[in-house]
Write a structure and sequence with these properties.
- By secondary structure, the chain is α/β, with parallel strands linked by helices.
- 51% of the residues lie in helices and 14% in strands.
- The protein has a single domain, classed as 3-Layer(aba) Sandwich (Rossmann fold), CATH 3.40.50.
- It has a six-stranded mixed sheet, sandwiched between helices.
- A hairpin with a 2-residue loop joins β5 and β6.
- The longest helix is centred in the middle third of the chain and has 14 residues.
- It is globular and about 40 Å long.
Length: 152
Amino acid sequence: MSPEQKDDPWQLVVVDTNVLISAALSPQSVPAQLLQHLLSNSILVFSHATFAELESRLWKPKFDRYLSIETRHALLHDFSAAAYWVEIDPQLAKCSWSRDPDDDHFIRAARQCRAQRLISGDQDLLCLGQIEALKICTPRDALEELSTLIRV
């Protein structure tokens, strides 16, 4: 069951792992500002594959000196609890768009729930630009688009 679809392209949003981790590492950054807005005004979408990627990357030892174990647990818990979870249809699971097959998980999650925005810093996704109604953009572009909508 999907949240009631409105004409708001920001209702359901898929956010790539790199953006979520950047936001956690730098609370004043553009990704952090964007994520703060999205958590207040949108619904983050995860599939099991996209969440597994976040979880595995967040536990890498290179983040030990930046994020405590407690902080990582809290982030994973909060994202999991606030997320709209999608189960990928088997036909959709066969589709690919990106030159990096791991990135297709994010596109599948977005397509499964008809999200219209996928936020990423990954060039393998950004080079795709748009796939039907799904716009793929950087955190900065997303924040600029949202600030324009808020001012109107």
